[in-house]
Amino acid sequence: MELPIYRSAIRQFGQRVGLVRDHQWGLSTPDPRWTVDGLVDHVTAGQLAVAAALGTAPPDGQTVDRPARWSAASAAALTAFGTVEDWSATVDGPDGPVPAGEVLWRAATELAIHTWDLARAIGAPDELPNDLLAHVLDQAREHGDRWFTADRYAPAIPVPGCTEDLIELLARAGRNRWWRRG
To answer: Which GO terms describe its molecular function (predicted)?
Structure first.
């Protein structure tokens, strides 16, 4: 399984969390449901859910420091994935039972998308490593009909003939690559 790709996605999101300034937590993001604060909380909760689905207890204590909460949650998820012996074993995913490997790929895909969301919201670099994009896009193509549902993402944006992985991945999630806060 591609645990290095997941680690890369964790690093990318964590780097952007580290760039958020105090005055930016209330800014809007490309997903109109969230401010920067809400997005980071959403992704942090997702990492805790991954850890729980794989049988790892959440970190002890609740800190109000968002970057520290993110670090603890992502460390718990990484630890949980590190204990998986059979990637085809069924675990409880967000939409019901799925193979553990699919949980990894879905988490990596969501991290990549939300890294871009966070970067655009705070004006940070929004490019992602090519290997991360190529791998998660392959998985998004395979599982997108289940992952990119209307209750989770905006409708997909058609990009016929697209040759840029980031644009295609974002379009699948209903994101406009050139989004700017209004």
So the answer is: metal ion binding
Q: Rounded distance, CA 48 to CA 109, Å?
A: 16
Question: Looking at the whole model, is its pTM more than 0.85?
Answer: yes
Q: For each successive 10 residues of the chain (182 residues), what is the average pLDDT?
A: 90 98 97 95 94 80 80 94 94 87 95 98 97 96 90 91 94 94 77
Q: Whole-angstrom Cα distance, residue 156 to residue 141?
A: 12
Beta-carbon contacts of 117 under 8 Å, excluding residues fewer than 6 positions away, are 29, 30, 31, 34, 39, 175
- Token code pair at residue 51: 């850890």
Q: Which two tokens stand for residue 19?
A: 């760039």
Q: Which CATH class is domain 3-131?
A: mainly alpha
CA max distance for the chain: 49
| pLDDT number for residue 94 | 77
Q: Which tokens in the block code for residue 80?
A: 């949980």
CB atoms within 10 A of CB 151: 4
* Terminal-residue alpha carbon distance, the chain: 40
What's the chain's length in residues?
182
Domain assignments of the chain as residue spans, ordered by start:
3-131
Lookup: tokens for 135: 């791998």
